[in-house]
Amino acid sequence: MKQDSKLVATTETSESSVAVQQTAPARRRVLTASVLAGATATAALWASARRDKAQPAATTETDDPAGMFLVPGSRHSDAIPDVPLLTQTGQTVRLYSDLIRDQRVLISFMYCRCQGICPASSGLMQRLRKILPQYLGPDLRLLSLTLDPEHDTPRELQRYARAFGSGDDQTTTPWTFLTGGAQQIESVRTALGYRDPDPVIDADRTQHAAMLTFGNDAANRWGTLPVGLTELQTVSGILRVLGNSTAERFAVVPRPV
Amino acid sequence: MDRRSFLRSVGQVGTVAGAAVAAPAATQAEGYRRCADPHLKFVAEQVTKWAQELRDLNYVQPREVRATDHIGAVEQGVAPEWYWFHPDQSQPHQHPPLAPGAARSPRPQHIRRDADEQIVELAACDFVTQIIPGWVTHVLGYGEVHRSADGKELSCQPQTPGPAFNVRLFHPLIVRVHNRIDPHLHLEVSVHQHGGHIPAHSDGHPNFLILPGERRDYFYPNSVPLQADLQGNQWVPRDGEWDTNETQSTMWYHDHAEDITAHNALMGLGGLYFLRDSREDELRQQGILPALDHEIPLVLKDVCLQPITDESLMLCKVRDEVEKLKKAGESIHGEARIHFDPFDHNGTLGNLVLVNGQAYPFKAVRPEAYWLRLLNASLARFYNLEFWAVHPTTLKHRRLTFLRFGRDSWMFQHAISQTSVFLSMANRGDVYLDFAQCLAEDWKEYWQDDQLQVLMVSTLNQKDGRGPGHGDNEATATELPRGAANELPEDRTDSLPLIQFRVQRGGEVVPQPTHMTEQVELRPHEQLAIPENVRVREFNFERGRGAWQINHRFYDSCTANVVHDLWSTELWILRNRSGGWWHPIHIHLESQQQIYVQARNQRGERIVLKRPDYDVHRFCRDRNIQLELSAEEIETADEKWKSSFAEMQNHSSDDPDKLKFDQTVWNLEIKHDTHVLGPNTEVHLLMRFRTFEGPFVFHCHNLNHEDMRMMYQMDPRERTQSDVSVADEELRVRGSHWYFASNAPHHCHEEPSGGAV
Q1: Which of A9, A52, B424, B444 has the maximum number of C-beta atoms within 10 A of its C-beta?
Q2: In a domain, B690, yes or no
């Protein structure tokens, strides 16, 4: 295993040559290797990211009474490839390291020409972008990946984003639309479980825009729900995953009168 | 691991991982992608088979309730039904007040109690253990809390599977469950007692949670319902006539928390629950059931273990344990982490099948009869279990026959001679396996030094969460490490050995005067009559909007999808219309009886089972209900299936290629609580809704599907005028038992946005 990680480490250092081919676990091993030198600092960061807001601040890992904190390098997000993608403003970003690492994210799939479920998914994202910060504060990011990267250039995505009110206001809760190489997009789609074991169904992109994935990467918690739930069900389900304390996680409780 | 295989596995990491990115479509076809990774197969392949002896299960030790226990004075309260028997107890804080008309007045005559309640305290915990010797694993489990007479906690040793329950019929139990899982993990729990007849508050409803650090008092009456009749248009219970045919036997309990059931169950929150009564005692005294020390409970669950040897990557709790054990001089290789993929919604499969939490254990037995109490506790894996005696030199195998006398929670009226047990998720199988059959002269060659090896194997291939086979039941490859050549004959390496029974003969033989036979009556079974003008409901289980739906809808905790008259009998039609996907459908509250089944067996033959008094064709035509088959097709298919049953009864042939199918999977003469909906399967069933008002749920027991909201709510109620005038699904679930007494602002009729967006 050591040999393997060294091998990838070499690839990783030549950052400019966009090492798309590396796998997620391999990428994480590299990350760990580079981070381990400053282990104390990292651990403190980790602890503070996971801390319950209700609890007193834990400044180092040893303050964590349960000793439960994971060390970076063994998160569920290991499965997400750190591929380079283009945003609606034409900026090149790394999916994991720039947009997901240690953050709370909401991820959907869409494409501009989609007549079916996408308007519903994107409309839901639009509403959640206003609702969730009321409970979670500004620490939240929305990502929408196109399933039609050949057609959906950054320019197309920008138009689509504006239609959903995400063109300009990127300050409080950023909503980033992403396109990229077909292979990169495919690798993200399958990694996030937007796949069907039947290859015929899997090849139909209209099948993959009906779920929302949400993750609290620092807490290593991820969830997915279908788009077709009521807003109340959706918000409560998302908060239970993204919230950092019981108060945040159960800020919305669908309960009968 | 020798050097060559190490290099080979490293090489495979590179190749497979590279292909995963370069050709995602190809990876796609592999189905359960990550568990197939060579590095995840590593631990499974390292396990030495039959090296550990199967551990005995622990049983909980209920005790008398003391004044200091303060039943109901815990965060999530106790069921309103408990107060039927304790009217002097004021409902303590936290318990939501009952709104007028929200719950019925006390009806203690609807639960039979032959004794005072006892109490068991369980704590859901996270802890570290060694599933595979030498590898430390972080798991969830239950531990029983023991207390001194003055209420001081003495000990709590968590385990997975959790301690088993051994309770008596009509002896009620309070189970106080503490959620002591590390609060940093933010895991809420809800304990469902699967198969029980339980008040809604205590049924493990997915939204009736125990939050981190909190407690809930589960009230298990361990009673059976009253018989009930239709009088006019009103269902009325018969006073004092207990439906003892409903007495359960092999049940289990497991976590059911909304959206995280798969995670919690995979990590270890589950255990067995046995109910015993005087009929069972009688059968044991008569020698028809084996003695208590001849019961072998076997809980099957597959996991995928990820080896981590770099201490910096280990969970801190695991790393501490590893360091501690290494200092103590133990040989520890590292962490074996249960691999949970939150992005897998199809159905989590593992590459290592644990039996009672152990990998490939052995069990020493005598050539006598045993009661195997089998449970499939897996998230998405199906099993077809057979018992093979293996020839010591030629490795030829020969199947043992056995009597199958229970499915799900209920014993049959008469046992059935079988050679295989097909278990979908959550199914249980009660098996009377008599190893004495191997003492006969024609088994002689299988013995060596007075020892005989019998393997329990699963002969089912399954490669992804869809289920075994894909509609047409073609043979499929699988990621499970199969039987090595030194254990199974080469032509059967597609079968998976799970546990080894070492039969030892010689010594003193205690002759058994009586045995279970197919003729002896075990527990009476009464076929439910189809009421005139019976209420019919249809449920289609489908793939839709990237997930799984029931009648085009997802689970919504605010909606009562089905509202029944309390005490009524209804006819339900369950249809699987989701292509190649299998969905085992579990309905809470009571048993169900199948009256018509249209399915396919493992050979792909169409199965039609129809109760003679149910003219399904006419029944559906009169009600404008679609039926796939014509009247003639139903009749002829029925005949064909009967003949193939007859063929299966013939155990003289031991042709290994001949598949024999478990005829209890679909069966009109037994009770069920989890219906196997294979591809394009349709089941018509009768079910009663007695004793307790809802809400309850029914759902797919592929737990990943359940978490993606393939679940419905049903709410039996005493009929009121307002309920009758409103359609199902417009009715809100009643709030009397809701999980939170908090001042959370959002009710079912409000949207959280607090204004137009």
Answers
A1: B424
A2: yes
Whether residue B172 is contained in a domain is answered as yes
Interface test with A, best of B34, B43, B188, B312 (most A CBs within 10 A): B312
B17: in domain = yes
Q: Could you tell me if B460 and B575 lie in one domain?
A: no
Note whether B511 and B539 are same-domain residues.
no
Prediction ipTM score:
0.88
Per-residue model confidence (pLDDT) at position B281:
97
Of residues B43 and B261, which shows the higher confidence score? B261
CA B311 to chain centre: 36
Q: Find out whether A210 and A117 touch, Cβ atoms under 8 Å.
A: yes
Q: Where are the domains of chain A?
A: 2-63, 76-249
Q: A-B interface: how many C-beta pairs under 8 angstroms?
A: 222
Nearest residue of chain A to residue B34 (CA atoms) = A79
- For A231, which of B34, B346, B753 is closest by C-beta distance? B753
Which of A 135-174 lie inside 8 A of B, CB atoms? none
For residues B555 and B653, state if they share a domain.
yes
CB contact under 8 A, B21 and A213: no
Q: B191-194 and B535-544: which strand pairing?
A: unpaired
How high is the pLDDT of residue B259? 96
Q: Give percent of chain A with pLDDT exceeding 70.
A: 69
Regarding whether B290 and B272 lie in a shared domain, the answer is no
Indicate whether B266 and B293 sit together in one domain.
no
Asked, as a colleague might, if the bond just before A256 is cis with ω within 30 of 0, I would say no
Structural domain range at position B268: 63-90+106-276
Let me know whether B514 and B547 are in one domain. no
Q: Kindly report, residue by residue over B696-711, the tens digit of the pLDDT.
A: 999 999 999 999 999 9
The fold of A76-249 is Glutaredoxin (3.40.30)
Query: Among B277, B284, B68, B89, which Cα is nearest to B168's?
Result: B277
Percent of chain B with pLDDT over 90: 60
* Residue A249 in contact with partner chain B when CB distance is under 8 A: yes
Q: Do A232 and B751 touch (CB under 8 A)?
A: yes
Strand duo B52-53 + B696-700: pairing: unpaired
Instruction: Scan residues 53-112 of A and list those with Cβ closer than 8 Å to B.
Output: 61, 64, 66-71, 73-74, 76, 79, 81
Count of domains in chain B? 4
Q: For CA atoms B444, B445, B448, B452, give the dihedral sign.
A: negative
Domain boundary among B457, B490, B522: B522
Distance of CA B528 to the CA centre of its chain: 24
Q: CA-CA distance, B671 to B317, in Å (whole number)? A: 44
CA distances from B519 to B13, B405, B433, B650, B717 (A): 57, 12, 16, 17, 41
DSSP string, B177-223: EEE-S-GGG---B-EEEET----GGGTT-TTS-B-TT-EEEEEE---
Closest C-alpha among B594, B512, B77, B523 to residue B275:
B523
Select the more confidently predicted residue: B9 or A255: A255
In terms of domains, do B401 and B512 share one? yes
**CATH number of the structural domain spanning residue B425:** 2.60.40.420
